[in-house]
Amino acid sequence: xxxxxHAHLDLSPLCEAEKEVVSRARxxxxxxxxxxxxxxxxxxxxxxxxxxxxxxxxxxxLHPHDAATFxxxxxxxxxxxxxxxKVVAIGETGLDFYRDRSPRDAQxxxxxxxxxxxxxxxxxxxxxxxxxxxDILAILSEENAAEVGGIIHCFSGDYAMARKAVSMxxxxxxxxxxxxxxxxxxxxxxxxxPLERLLxxxxxxxxxxxxxxxxxxxxxxxxLVAAKIAQIKELSVxxxxxxxxxxxxxxxxxxxxxxxQIAYKIRNSLYLNITNRCTNACVFCAKQRDYHVKGHLxxxxxxxxxxxxxxxxGDPTRYxxxxxxxxxxxxxxxxxxxxxxxxxxxxNARIRVNTDGLANLVHGRNILPELAGLVDAISxxxxxxxxxxxxxxxxxxxxEASFPALLDFLREAPKHIPHVAATAVALPELDIKAARRxxxxxxxxxxxxxxxxxxx
Length: 456
Description:
Layout: E1 2-7, H1 18-27, E2 30-36, H2 40-52, E3 56-60, H3 72-82, E4 87-96, H4 104-121, E5 125-130, H5 133-142, E6 150-153, H6 159-167, E7 170-174, H7 184-192, E8 198-200, H8 222-233, H9 237-251, E9 263-266, E10 269-272, E11 292-293, E12 296-297, H10 306-313, E13 321-324, H11 334-345, E14 351-355, H12 359-363, H13 368-371, E15 377-381, H14 387-393, H15 402-412, E16 419-425, H16 432-440, E17 445-450
Parallel strand pairs: 1-2, 2-3, 3-4, 4-5, 5-6, 6-7, 7-8, 10-13, 13-14, 14-15, 15-16, 16-17
Antiparallel strand pairs: 9-10, 11-12
Helix pairs in contact: 2-3, 8-9
């Protein structure tokens, strides 16, 4: 289900067909909508609209176009409205140096005051930014907006700006304009940022995506934005919907139920999360911050049994491959991996294992012959070009024995498994080219670079 994080349901022509607009959104899979206030009257309308529809929420604020009308009394009205049920953010506020419909000093003042209100109320801020990138970032920093975070709505900056905003606890929201020609800066930002830092929006009734460009926009078109992002990120639309919805729910502090996943789908692969135990304590491991991967919660309360895992896997022929990969080292459960693989191979599954390559140290023997015929591919986390670097970024109880054992595992794997890949996370300080050279010097081993700060 999709979350349109920026809509103006109070504006014409949407307001004249409110029920039909929300119904069409539901039918398109858009289960949640944030309708945005742009002044006190519009904010009141947003609150009232949210009260009439399940899954619709409201934000209250003063748009920079109207910043000249700002007063203490106006701010007081916004604060009163912000305490109403289903109000989840302050905004739309910010700066617009393209239209300049209010004096710039008035815009800056209204923006600062609304950030301060958001911090007072512990609500995120929805930021309008048009040709005011540097001023936006400066004010967010000066007003400590990172305390509450928020959204750079209808993002029009470049990747460098997006990185700075993300570092201040802001998400980047992508509108239908990404489907237009000459959207190169947005495309680059989407390609380079983790999907966990992105949202989708329509900004309806404006900025309808292709093929509706030039017509009135509405929340039902949000899946078209998700489809473009999926194309850029080489993910499925389902992946983009799930992840961006989770991002929004967490930002807006909207309660939701979720269960830890034993089997979870990304693209058209099914991943099996069979343990949270690890051999290594890698410094870059995402589970130090969060147990979600591509919108799936992977924190297990206990390790599932083999029958449970097989039941969750279901029909493996629906997927391109079945991958043993969760937030843990699957080969710590070697016997179970073998049995699950044996059962799934009987159902014509293609099996891949993602591993740290230290299983021979763990089990005290060469376990690779035991995987022959059961595993079609194995991805082995090399993560370093030398023992010293490996010890620093992937510490474990085996110490100096680890890296030589890992290299031995890589050399041995092609004798028993048809497809062997070494991988490395592209940490800023890592010599990724040296890691590649090392991996590709081993016969039968390919190399794959993994994005830093993006799992899955």
